[in-house]
Design a protein that fits this description.
The complex is a heterodimer of chains A (478) and B (281).
Chain A (H helix, E strand, L loop, with lengths): L38 H9 L8 H5 L6 H9 L3 H11 L3 H7 L6 H4 L2 H4 L5 H11 L1 H7 L11 E5 L3 H12 L3 E5 L8 H4 L8 H13 L3 E3 L10 H6 L2 E6 L5 E2 L12 E3 H10 L17 E5 L3 H12 L3 E6 L10 H9 L3 E4 L1 E8 L5 E14 L5 E5 L5 E4 L2 E4 L3 E2 L3 H4 L6 E2 L2 E2 L12 E3 L2 H4 L4 H19 L12
Chain B lengths: L4 E8 L2 E7 L1 H6 L5 E5 L7 E4 L2 E3 L4 E7 L3 H8 L8 E6 L10 E7 L2 H14 L3 E8 L8 H7 L3 E5 L6 E2 L2 H8 L7 E5 L2 H10 L6 E5 L15 E4 L2 E4 H4 L2 E3 L5 H8 L3 H14 L7
Parallel strand pairs in B: 8-9, 8-12, 9-10, 10-11, 12-13
Antiparallel strand pairs in B: 1-2, 2-6, 3-4, 3-7, 5-6, 13-16, 14-15
The chains are: A alpha/beta (478), B alpha/beta (281).
Amino acid sequence: MKPSPPRPKPDPKAPRQPLPLLDPALRHTPAEVALGFTGEQAKIEALRCLQCQKPTCIDACPLNIDIKRFILRMVDGDYAGAHEVISEQSPFPGVCGRVCQHELFCEEACIVGRRWDPVAIGALERFAADHARLRMQELVKGEPRKPTGPKVALVGSGPASLIAAYDLVRLNYRVTIFEALHRLGGVLAYGIPNFRLPREILHEEIARLQNLGVEFVTSFIVGKSATIEELFEEGYEAVFLGTGAGLPYLMEIPGENLAGVYTANEFLTRLNLMEAYRFPERPTPVHVGKRTVVVGGGNSAMDAARWARRLGSETTILYRRGRAELKARIEEIKHAEEEGVRFEFLAAPVALYGDPHGFVTAMECIRMELGEPDESGRRSPAPIPGSEYRIPAETVVAAIGQAPNPTLQRVTPQLHTRRGKIVIDEAGRTSMNLVFAGGDVVRGGSTVILAMKDGRAAAAAIHRALSPNGGNHDQPDH
Amino acid sequence: MINQIIDRRELAPAVTLLEVVAPRIQRRWKAGQFVIVRPTDHSERIPLTIMDSSPERQSISMVVQAVGKTTQETVALQCGEAFADLAGPLGEPATIPAGKRVVCLAGGVGVAELLPVARAYRDAGNQVIVLCGARSNEYRILDTELRAGAGPVHWATDDGSFGFHGNVVALLKTLAGPGAFDEGHVIGPIPMMKAAADATRDWHLKLYASLNPVMIDGTGMCGGCRVTVGDSVKFACVDGPEFDAHRVDFDELARRNGAYRTHERLALEHGNGCRIGLDVR
């Protein structure tokens, strides 16, 4: 490393740097909206870090990334070094720098935030990742490594399995990830839109795992292509189930099966995974009419609404609670508003009406009011009798949540579940010997970062189970 | 090589049998199940019903009618080439009772989809009669296989060029009536399945229909394949594809399957415009 000039003093009083965004007028393509810091901004923001003696951010990070140290590297202008520090814990700074809810974890814990705005750790993580992309291309060159330890099967290629794979392959386990779809990434690929997470970022970070020796098998549905028992028979010594929450809830209202009515899963899969926005250049179409109504208040609702806007539709998000109760990230809500998504609060769908060809044309809604807080502390909405009204809609998207996909559970009755979710103990163990689980299949609809946290915990549990002496299977380094 | 096509035969005009190396699917599949296929790396995902398998060649066979862009891309593949993706077996196997009088009804390419179900009925000790419909004599497929594996086969052709002149449901009504069968299975175009369900409503017959709605993932994730059966909404990919024909809302299914007709034409035109040769057969 080149000799660096004396390090400037931390300056937490400097204003938190705003993330430059794509002009809303230009957001009619899938291009990424958050543009990332400029070099100047990254410098200012990195210097805002106090380099605390007892950094609370690291404990708050579900992956325990050494935030203090990577930011110090950035203060020195050593972005590759920053990337290396992050890589000790996570190979996904490009993904997490974009989709992790930093405001709930590291930034919430940031000491600077007690007096000023917290350090923009997420944006710095992303900056390090973006500036290490050239280094990444070097990292994934050459022959993939060939681990020699016990075989471990990870089911599903979403965030939980990806981080488990990283941890296990570095301990020299022979890791295979089985993915049901034809593309890797799970919810990161089918659920999160390009404008939040460009596909090449995802592919590059997954390619790094491939280079470390993780084997990926697509179009393989554990439970259908092979049972868990068969995986053990084929020599896998432990199995991790990270199959996610892929079963969409339906609105259960009349007219739901009209054409033009989608679950968020279908709508987002058509666009994110099958690239329907490029139809007919790509073969999968999607119906986006003049007006779109998206039902729900979470991140999927924002994602669907923002896609509909990009395809030129007048878009409304219909949510049965109020603005304060929206579950989506504030940033996503803000972006949706900038892009012209209209919000209709305290209203719920009652029925859908269609034309003679079976295409949806209108939604009947009812006004809601918030009652007393329920056990969970949230005020539960109740319909106001007689307040029904109709709005036109040629496209309707139900973004009202999802449950774990039951495919595997159906053929594996010995796997204990509760309301569809796989039951695990504190070590991530299921009711089956040497079968572990984590992420949304355990939590229901949760977040990428908590899935990663579960994947990491399961990897540690698998290592404990397969290597009681704590060895690392004779591979010295990673 | 996995997913490689090792046999390819034209059974009738625009109806092609493809035999594909798929050891895992061959070992695990049961009658009534399907696979999701992407013929090329730039194709849509489509469901295809498994027709047969060969343990010796570790293969499965499907019969494809080239009607849209993806099915055209599928049948354009030649022996030695491979599907980009092949996943399965998906869906629940067909319900196969024992010791019953069973009628099997199929129309068009549904005849191929029926074959494994009809065989499974016979193998389980049921008395099976098969009624098949085709546009004309030259569109009749798999007659020998059905006779050998299932039971007597009766044909109906739309133009009367072979067997009964008319559709297969009309043939059913001339051959049998209420009480003639305990169970039945119908696979074919939606209007034909609906007609079969309507014709047998008071026959004291448990009739199963094998549905083929629009699907993306085929694993219960998207909900695009939802169908109304009685009072409930089912996902054909994971709850089906077989349902009680007398309770399926076929009109809704037809509307949903037709929802992308304009898009399909556009896709076809686009494909024909810039990928010469795909549409020649």
